[in-house]
Amino acid sequence: MIVLKLAAVIILGYLIGAIPFGVIAGKLARGIDVRNYGSGSMGTTNVLRTAGKGAAISVLLADMVKGIAAVAVAWAIFASSPSVLAWGLVAAGAAAVIGHNWPVYIGFRGGRGVTTTFGAFLLMCWPVALICLAIFIIVVAVTRYVSLGSLLGAIAMLLVMIPFVILGLEPYAYLIFGVIIVPLVVFRHRGNIKRLLSGTESKIGQKTEIE
After folding, report:
1. What confidence score (pLDDT) does residue 203 get?
2. Number of H helices and number of E strands within the chain?
3. pTM over 0.90
4. Does residue 211 surpass a pLDDT of 60?
């Protein structure tokens, strides 16, 4: 039964995470596929640069809700199995991020997974999620690099989680969530990392020309 529940939350989490709100918003706002412009991502930052603030805000909220929804579904499914609840939440949250990054609906070309990760972790462990959000905001405010804020915020999720687990405040499974997700976030930002190192990364507020 537990195996079937895990399979269910992984499949449902992936399908929820794979909903391409960024592409949908780009089509509605500008009639374009945002993945063909800018960074090639369907995430909030690229939507902001290519489709405008309104579309970007809607995508930010929708992508965050994807993570929340996936974890909420897992919570309902594992409500009767409290001993493995945390693992079910981790499985669903991770699946949602993978779905966002590689969405089956649009040829497996998705986003970076940061906002969906935040949504999932917000429901799992809101104190750590808010600490990471604060780090993200500070880094972006100082440097104006969303990618750098995303990377440092993701890494902080793993590092900040360690004392929470050691002190017994949160389950070990949540640390595993970080171990799975942080490498994915770094991998998906590999192009951004190269541009950051070369000094060619775009800062927030810069727009992408649409022909």
Report:
1. 87
2. 10, 0
3. yes
4. no
